[in-house]
Design brief:
Layout: E1 15-18, E2 21-25, E3 28-32, H1 40-49, E4 54-58, E5 65-70, E6 73-78, E7 90-95, H2 96-99
Parallel strand pairs: 3-4
Antiparallel strand pairs: 1-2, 4-7, 5-6, 6-7
Length: about 110
Amino acid sequence: MLKRKKRTDTQYDNTARFDGQIFGKLKVATWKVKGTAGKTEELQTELLKRKIDIAIITETKKKNKGSEDIGNYVMIYCGVPANQWASSGVATAIRKEWKHKIQDYTWISE
């Protein structure tokens, strides 16, 4: 029988807190998509099915920087300059219910 460890203050309890309010569990995931072209519907479907609140998406192969709505999510992405072959790239997909909590963000290249 496994014994449950006593939780310490340094352990993360994955409960989302904003302004001192508790909103329940925040589900975060990572996904290596190998290109998002033509996959936004599949991306949204999988995120909804798995009840993901925030997803860090790698290898998007998107160009430039920006954001776009993909159904119930907003995707903030950073890729290579427009004049380069599409490769790598990262994005963060955030459920729209959490969108109003974003105060600021900065694009950082890979």
